[in-house]
Amino acid sequence: MTITVHYFASLKETLGRSDDQLSITDAITVRQVWQLANPELPLPPNLLAAVNMEYVELDHLVADDDKVAFFPPVTGG
Amino acid sequence: MAVKIVEAAFDPWQELPAYQQSVSTLAGKFGATSVFVGTLRDFNEGDEVNGMHLEHYPGMTEKQLEKIIASAQQQWRLLDALVVHRVGAILPNQPIVLVAVWASHRGDAFDASRFIMEALKFQAPFWKKEYLQTGGERWVLKNTDGYQL
Q1: Closest chain B residue to A72 measured between Cα atoms?
Q2: What is the model's pTM?
Q3: Is the ipTM beyond the 0.85 threshold?
């Protein structure tokens, strides 16, 4: 299955890219999505995650065609 | 109920009556309108700020703001609510956010507008990068709890 990953704000700058496309065979968690996309980097502190534009915990299982997003704490308003 | 994400500068004191007049069901029914306007300061954390860039996650931003308003509608008796938020390049003195709530009575309007604003600060996916007078730039790391200030 295919997963799209989006990065925002300071995280996007640190990684030097805004998106990844991952092809995976087994169901994996959002935490494993990060590890697959960024094998050299530990999970940043205070990392927030969303799947299909809803906040999720890092142990949430992703499904085919899911849009995963990782970003730092939000600072609007 | 409306959520608007805008790239151009907006005037909350024009948005407010324009929206109010566009909602025919409000006429004669509202006794209280609570309005919050957040504006960009020219200082933050002890430094002078020349401007700011506001990034957001299109789609998720609107979805989260609509959820926040729906949550407020479950907790208080509201007639309508409007949230307008800037993105892109912003200068000091320009409004960043408008939250307006219409209700029959002031308690519902006051409390719901405060709730929507505080929830926006921690749930709506916006990120601020400040441009300092010294020439540097920095991401704002986190929002503060408005009830603890």
Answers
A1: B141
A2: 0.96
A3: yes
